[in-house]
Every structure is written in C-alpha cells, then in structure tokens.
Amino acid sequence: MTMPAALAEVVSDFKDVEGQDKLALLLEFADDLPPLPAELEEAAMEPVPECQSPLFLHVDADDRDHVRLYFSAPAEAPTTRGFAAILATGLDGQSAGDILAVPDDFYTDLGLAKLISPLRLRGMSAMLTRIKNRLK
C-alpha cells in the first residue's frame, strides 16, 4: 500500500490498539484537529455533504510539492473531527502525487468498521475523494 510516512504512522497507531481503545484514539485525534487559519473562513470552504455531521474542507495546492489541507467540523461531531484530523495529520504538507497515490480505502486499515457505522466511514472516504478531486 502506498501512502506517505505520516499517514502510515497513523494507520500503524490504530493497528496497535484494540476494541474501544481505537475509539479513544479517534477521539484523541478529534481533539487535535488544527484550528483554521485566521484568513480562511468556513463559508469559503467546500462542504462534504456525505459526512453525517457538518464538515468543510479546503485544499491549497498552489505548491503541489506541499499541499495544505484545512478542515472545519464542530466540536460536537468528534467522529467527523477525528477523521478530518487523521487526514490532516497524515496528508497535510505532502505532495499532490503522494496524496493522489493513497488508496481510496486506506481507512479500512484503521480497523474501525466494527465500531463505527458504515455511513460515518463513508464520510471519511468522501473527504479523501474530494481532496483528490481538487488535486486532479
């Protein structure tokens, strides 16, 4: 599987824990979602309607060697925030080529399918798809 080292490390972290500890780790990521920079407003960001909770993203690919990713999700949506934070941690600052090479179903390796509804997992897939579409 081809993915940037930072994303591979996140996947490895999830593989190292079992059961409810995976949910706890997801919530830790949710707490670490970076705030939006002052110059970026949620209203100017792309909504991801496939997510069950409101989620907005912005892809800054002006420098294709160092793509910047920004996400906004409410604090009361920890699963969605967690997924966004996983993508921010693993993909922010990576090259467009490296992001485009990430398998569309990489999130299955996180082992969350038994703990999180398929609809919520679809939201993570939709985030990655939208990021890739912006880079194409």
UniProtKB/TrEMBL annotation:
Family annotation (SUPFAM superfamilies): SufE/NifU (SSF82649)
Domain Fe-S metabolism associated as annotated: residue spans: 12-133
Annotated signal sequence range: none
Highest rank taxon of the organism: Bacteria
Family of this protein: Belongs to the SufE family.
Full protein name: Fe-S metabolism associated domain-containing protein
Species in which this protein is naturally found: Mycolicibacterium parafortuitum
